Amino acid sequence: MEVVTGALPSVITKLGELLNGEYNLQKGLKGEIRFLQSELESMKGALEKVSSTPADRLDIQDKIWARDLRELSYDIEDGIDTFMVRGQGKEQGNLHGIKKFIDRSVGLFRKAKIRHGMATEIRDIKTRVEEVAKRHGRYKISSDVAMPVMIDPRLFSQYTEAKELVGIDEARDELIKILEEENEVSMQQHGKIVSIVGFGGLGKTTLAKAVYEKIRARFDCCAFVSVSQTPNLKKLFKGLLCDLGKKNNEETLDESRLIKVLREFLQEKRYFIVIDDIWDISVWKMIRCALPDNDVGYAIITTTRIFDVAEQAGGAYKLKPLSLNNSRKLLYRRIFGSKNKDNNEDREKCPDEELAEVSDRILKKCAGVPLAILTVASLLACKTRNKIDWYEVYNSVGTGLENNLDVKNMRKILSFSYYELPCHLRTCLLYLSMFPEDFEIDKDRLIRMWIAEGFIKSEKQGKSLFEIGDSYFNVLINRSMVQAIYGTDTGMPRSCRVHDMVLDLIRSLSTEENFVTVLSDMDSTSPSDTIRRLSLQNVKNSHIMAHASRSSLQHARSVVIFPSEFAQAPALGSFQVLRVLDLCECDLSQAKSLKYLENLYQLRYLGLCWTSISQLPEEIGNLQFLQTLDVRGNNRISWLPSGVVQLTNLMFLYIDGSTKVPNGIGNLTCLEQLSRLCIDGSTINIVEELGQLAALRQLEIELDEWNDKVLECLRMLQKIQKLDISVHPGQRSIGGLDAWVAPRHIRDLRTVNSYWFSILPAWMNPSLVPDLTILCIAVRELHQGDLEILGRLPALRTLSLVVDNENLGILHGFVVGAGLFPCLVFCSFSRFVWPVVFQQGAMPKLRDASGILAVVLRAGGRRNCQQRCWPRLGPGKPAIAAVGHGWPPVL
Known about the structure:
- The protein has 891 residues and is an alpha/beta fold.
- The protein is built from 27 helices and 27 strands.
- 38% of the residues lie in helices and 14% in strands.
- Among the domains are: 8-138, no CATH class; 153-318, 3-Layer(aba) Sandwich (Rossmann fold), CATH 3.40.50; 324-397, no CATH class; 407-510, Orthogonal Bundle (Arc Repressor Mutant, subunit A), CATH 1.10.10.10; 766-891.
- Helix 2 (29-51) packs across helix 4 and helix 3 (60-88) runs antiparallel to helix 4.
- The longest helix is centred in the N-terminal third of the chain and has 42 residues, at 97-138.
């Protein structure tokens, strides 16, 4: 389902299932369903066209029609889903005799009644669809009516006076130094390309303009052009020629001829060109064709919001936010500058200590983004200078409620990135407005929610929905829409935050689309009559919750409640079509907290981690559509109820090692992730059932003691990508996995608390496991050749090695040669007898290391060696070896 098309894609599919399924529809109903399918297909196409136009440029009648159709699509899907659940029902195979006859008769009567109700609803839906279409036609405004002229607010950044800029000198000088560097590549090409990349409003264009003005006099000719999202290359090339000083009339030339003219003109000139605001790498490649390498030198700067574009253009330069000190200067200069124009020092100070405190809080929300600071400054400038009014502005940032001209311009600048996203990614981004500001959003949790809502569709053969969701998440990072938070051990995104300015944009859009309703004491708006998704944040005011209770909650699809607010939540019985219920970290110790849970028949996601519950209802088996069950952090749950094994659509099951699963888990054939399963003598038979879970991709398992059945089970799990296996402390399982061969697509293997491998297995090499990214293993015996094989694994980012060479009497050292471990970010070596020597160029991306005492060689001191070998290694991180020129090392 997409925000621009509502639930239409899903509805059209489900109407097809009604036609083809065994639902015994009433006579004549199939024709009406086919009519609906055809009509909704056409409407879906029209909605997709509407979605390509920014909201502020849409005709008001189109907006109303799109909103009505989206709301209708939700209602249609809810009705179909309800029918599918109730119409199928469950057969009770344990009844006999007259009791079975009576129950069967009652069941047939009930199904007939449901089918009659469905027929009535389909006809009502048809009437509503026809009315929406007719209303749109009745009030359609002529296309000849003039639309207001839209001014692109990004233009202003190109004409900002240099004296008004703050904190740009350091970045400008750094960029100039990069452009002037005489490294090996620039000596060959006599030119340099730098791509400034960063978040919308961060000041990329301003920085590029500052560099341009500073050094343009050093070149024979210069040009500064903007590309935009819908580039006209012919116009752009003509603009380049004009800026460069080419006087000839080129009006009649096509793109290929213009490229030729540009190349000929620049071939013998030292030129400097800025290409601002690139959105597509293919556009850059066309522009690059017109900018020749030459023997006299050139400099090219590009700006973009997209990291992939910057990397492919070359010389990616990630623009940093302003420091707190520079942020203060910019804020105060804009607010207090008019009265102190002749005194820069006074303009950059806050005249009131009371206001200084709240302004620092505001600046924390702005996170050093100049656009955000200037926008907030315009709001504060209109307020009286007292703490109460300034706190009012502080509380409004990120809510989507402010609507003055500067806020609208800020949203418009950010919205360029939003509308550049594909429709399905816009939906996924808007869903992030469910979370509070400055909240660290766990990647896996978010992806499972997207799946439950139906935002992720299967696109690629062999790719799971979770893997597709992971690619969606990475695109949002790449497009600078969210701020990634990286794992220290992998250097890969594990969570994200939404910048307050982006949150303001998506909250505003979500409110307009009735996509998400956020209830908070900070939010003074009244909830919609129909709530589709509900997020409760900091709700202590009972009047707000009472109003929501009076609103229609029966159509809510997602409910996320944040800690300490559960007492204010409506009863679960209020929700009839709920798909996502996340109560993570809420106190559910009272038994009545989960009352009516078993009646949430449409539920796909149930998040109950760290909620202090002691048991789940046996009737949880009623939740036939459930995909995610997360009960981690509840150590009072000793057993999952037997009803869990009826959840045949379950894909993700997360429990603690203290929670045991019942027999029958082999029925969960859709299960892809299982963590963390503890198996002891009372549950050993579960191991055999695990082998039936052919779809399993991630398994975390803890054994009370080694059992050969585990090996047989692992051999059957050919889709495994992540395996974390451990044995109870005090138990040993030397060589337990020697006979196991990992599947080719294994990515993450962790077996560190026992010597599961006697030697490095033959399959652990680049040709057989090319995707291996995380390797944490204990190997009884390791040799120099083994380390070299591991060093050639092309995707390896995390390596933790434990060896037992000393106890085996193998006393030799190891050398890691240049070029080995090209992608490694984290490294830990334990129980190595001799220090490991690293040659220059080994592990070039290393950021974190531990485990081996650094050795100082005659070639240089410890500190210098570390910096020379691993420039990315953070301050305070221990060096794990020394750079040597021979063996053994000289102490």
